[in-house]
Each structure stands twice: as C-alpha cells, then as structure tokens.
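User: I'm writing a tutorial on reading structure tokens. Could you give me a worked example: one chain, its sequence, then its tokens, then a sentence or two explaining what the tokens reveal?
Assistant: Sure. Here is the example chain.
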Amino acid sequence: MNTQKILVLGVGNVLLHDEGIGVHVVRDLAENYCFSDNVTLMDGGTLGMRLLDTISQADFMVVADTLCSGKAPGTLSRLTGEEIRDRVAAKNSLHQVSFLETIAYANFLGVLPETVLIGCEPENLSAWGTEVTPTVAAARPEMTQMVLKEVENAGGKLL
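And here are its predicted structure tokens:
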C-alpha cells in the first residue's frame, strides 16, 4: 500500500474571475470524487505563507492555479521542479508574496515536496466576479482531469 501523502492544493482569489480557477477545480474534486486516505484536498485560496506548514507535511503536491505566461486564455500547462521555481519573480514587499514565492520559501527551508503545478492561462483577472470566464470555464474539465491523473500517478486512488 502506498502511504505517500498527496496534497491537492487549489490556490487563487475566487473574487477575481479567472484568478480563482484553482480553487474551483479543487472544489469540483471534493464534490464529485472520493479519494484514498493518503489524498488531501485543500482550498488554499490566497493564504500564501500560511500554507507552509500544510505543504511541509506532504510527500507530493499537485497545485491547481492560474498561470500567466502569455499564452492564449484557457491554455493549460504542467510545470515541475525548476519550471516552477523559475516563475518566481522579485517583489517589493511582503504584501506581494505570491504562492510561487511560498514554494520558493518551502524549497529554501527544505520542506517542499515533489510538486506539479497545473496552470490555466486567464482571460480576466481585473474585474470583480466570482465566476470564471467562458473561455476558462471550457478548460476547467480538462484541468480537473489533469489533476486527477497526477494524483493517480502519485499513488492516490479514486474510490
């Protein structure tokens, strides 16, 4: 039996349209699937550095998030290792600490589990709204399936 602790973490702000896609995906998983005991689903929202303790307890982490990389809205990407760490940008204050910087801190502290980031290119991050845009909504089922595949590859089971 695989006892690897798998954390599925959805991050983002659900009040800014497409910024919340990661949280929506984790909510979809919680509502529609049951997992083996070694899988934990978490709505990480905008908790940032407060996620360090939770991250440090995992052996493997799948992150669902918005990923701004200049590709067409709704484009899905899979990042690992250095690809994730290369996304960390310098900030001017702790108010601007992003989730990718939280990953960098976890790595620096030696508590970062093996991590896969499944990201969706946003269409709208600038206006208030709790629903993702139709373009990102169309990518949501495939994003959910990509996360499920990562969980299964890491030893998590669908029940």
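What the tokens reveal: Residues 134-153 form the longest helix (20 residues). Confidence is low (pLDDT under 50) at residues 89-96.
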